[in-house]
């Protein structure tokens, strides 16, 4: 499954999206509502690493597949929005799977 760069990007997008939702939906409420800050540092660090890897991999795939500026813009913007990477997988990355 991870033989092509586009499939690696899809997996990174999935992991980055899950880490973002965990950070926003679980860790932040634990930190601010229940005064338990520890999970935020671990999940936050993992999310930061996955975010950087996702952005770098978008650039790698864009150069390899020769994406236009618009597609690069939407793929990078997806990493900033909750559920964005899941939508990017369906709308931007899936059609490239056959290449």
From TrEMBL:
Keywords: Cell membrane, Membrane, Transmembrane, Transmembrane helix
Record Pfam families: DUF3817
InterPro entries, per the entry: DUF3817_TM
Compartment(s) of residence: Cell membrane
Keyword Cell membrane: yes
Transmembrane parts of this sequence: 12-33, 45-65, 72-93
Organism superkingdom: Bacteria
Claim: Amino-acid biosynthesis is one of the keywords in the record: no
Domain DUF3817: residue ranges: 7-92
Cellular component per GO, a single term: plasma membrane
Membrane topology: Multi-pass membrane protein
UniProt name for this protein: DUF3817 domain-containing protein
